[in-house]
Design brief:
Elements lengths: L9 H16 L4 H8 L3 H8 L8 H11 L11 H4 L2
Helix pairs in contact: 2-3
Length: 84
């Protein structure tokens, strides 16, 4: 799903794509990641597929700690695109 960078949902789409990339880099399925962080696998799928409208920073923080990645990794490829 492509979305205009001026749309308020843009950040969720980009973070969802980065979540999917990070998950795959750690060789985890959606189910495995969900189990690791004690969330429902449907939540992971919806975020990665841009079906989930919002999610918390706490959610990303939990994943960052479990996978030993930086919080900023979820926001890769956003900085330059959103500057006007």
């Amino acid at each position: 799903m492509e979305i205009n960078k001026n749309d308020n949902k843009y950040i969720y789409v980009k973070v969802g794509k980065n979540l999917k990339r990070i998950r795959k880099e750690h060789h985890l399925t959606q189910v495995e990641l969900a189990d690791l962080i004690s969330y429902n696998e449907g939540t992971i799928a919806n975020i990665e597929n841009s079906s989930y409208q919002t999610f918390s920073l706490e959610f990303l923080y939990i994943i960052s700690k479990k996978l030993n990645v930086s919080m900023k990794d979820f926001f890769d490829d956003i900085d330059e695109e959103t500057k006007d």
